[in-house]
Amino acid sequence: MWKIDRRTIENFDWLTLLCVLTICFVGILTIYSSTRPPLDEGEMPPFYVKQLIWVIISITVFFVFISFDYNKLKRFWIPLYIFGLILLIAVLFSGKTAMGAKRWINLGFFSFQPSEIFKILFVICLSAFLSEKKSPLTVIDTIKIFLLFACIPFFLIVKQPDLGTALLIITITFIMLIYKGLQLRVLVFTVFLFIVSLLFLWELLWEGLKEYQRNRLIAFMDPSVDPKGIGYNISQSVITIGSGGLFGKGFLEGTQGPLKFLPERHTDFIFPIFAEEWGFIGCLFLLSLYFTVFYRTFYTSLLAKDFFGKYLALGFTSVLLLYFFINLGMTLGIMPVVGIPLPFMSYGGTTLLANFIGIALVINVRMRRFELFYP
Predict the structure, then answer these.
(1) Most buried pick, 33, 76, 157, 348, via CB within 10 A?
(2) Counted domains in the chain
(3) Neighbour order of strands in the sheet with 111-112
(4) Which residues contact 57 (CB under 8 A, 6 or more apart)?
């Protein structure tokens, strides 16, 4: 008979789950507002309904992933990693092309994004691998980890192309290596090698980018260079955020979304729509929810009973933090547009499900942090 230990339930992180669900609720409202037809004309797109369904599915999967000891995942990291790479390879051959990118696999009744699934598998596998290595890491260890865990998926994801997620994989690897404990000389050597490589390979990398990716970088450097063309997204995003003022225009009173001035208003640029309707005060409330989640997930990495749990919590905290800051950065015009959604808020089923699995595993680590001392 399956038995739930009372002390495990007592350590459940209700505050983090409450904050996440509140962000999801705000996201559904904003998706509804941003996609409604102007002047109540035309048919309402079902994006907010689909997002609500995905929230329900994600919550169900969430409780599945907190129901077992996270350490069981450690035994299967090799097949999980191979499965993740197979998904990334499969999308290159049989993926669905949309907006110039081949990032989705269509199963008929729904499509999913393999890179989002791989993001979860990647953190699990790298955490399992690092938990078995001695600290501090040597130069050889660092090179092996980058070649095995970072470089292979990086090039597979770049081929889709999905430069934002590919760079995310590299960044998370670097963060977790630092947390694990790099020798100072290894850290200095790695940073130096990266800077030198970037200087020498910049022209090659620039030529390898798609035209729309080069345009995004040009628009980031100078949005005014073509405000009605390549700089349009950033310019309209900044205008939308600024139009909210201190208290905002009010729910369903925003104009930039319904009138379609702002592209991708329910996905990558959902934050400006929220800022227009709820203003600076509303943004402070939303940011407080996010930072509560970040603080508690990072604190879980300090509380974890073992190294595997520490790296899991840190890895998923890093994913959410990077997604959050990159998305806000590009909507504010201080970072290039790279197609990174706002966690738990932007429209997208696979991303939402992946983020809920990540939060579930972090809370799983927190729930079982005393299990070694159970009688």
Answers:
(1) 157
(2) 1
(3) 96-98, 101-106, 111-112
(4) 349, 353
Instruction: Enumerate residues 6+ apart whose C-beta is below 8 A from 290.
Output: 19, 23, 324, 343
Q: Is residue 161 part of a domain?
A: yes
CB 166 within 8 A of CB 101: no
Residues 292, 111 contacting (CB under 8 angstroms) = no
Taking CA atoms, 230 is separated from 93, 126, 218, 220, 326, in Å, by 30, 37, 8, 9, 19
User: Cα(280)–Cα(261) distance, rounded to whole angstroms?
Assistant: 21
Q: Are 357 and 64 in contact (CB under 8 A)?
A: no
**What domain range includes position 46?**
6-370
Tokens describing residue 279: 């203003």
- The answer to whether position 137 is within a domain reads yes
Sign of the CA dihedral 270, 236, 332, 162? positive
The answer to whether residue 119 is domain-embedded is: yes
104 has which bridge partners? 96
pTM: 0.87
Rounded Cα gap, residues 288 and 311, in angstroms: 25
Alpha carbons 256 and 243: distance in angstroms, whole number: 9
- DSSP-H helix ranges across the chain: 6-10, 14-35, 47-65, 77-94, 114-131, 139-145, 152-158, 163-180, 184-208, 211-221, 232-243, 270-303, 307-331, 349-367
Helix (H) or strand (E) run with residue 105 in it: strand 101-106
Residues 6+ apart with CB under 8 A from 23: 286, 289, 290, 293, 343, 344, 345
Give residue 147's pLDDT band: very low, low, confident or very high (50, 70, 90): confident
Q: Is residue 1 part of a domain?
A: no
Q: pLDDT tens-digit profile of 229-251?
A: 555 677 788 888 888 888 888 88
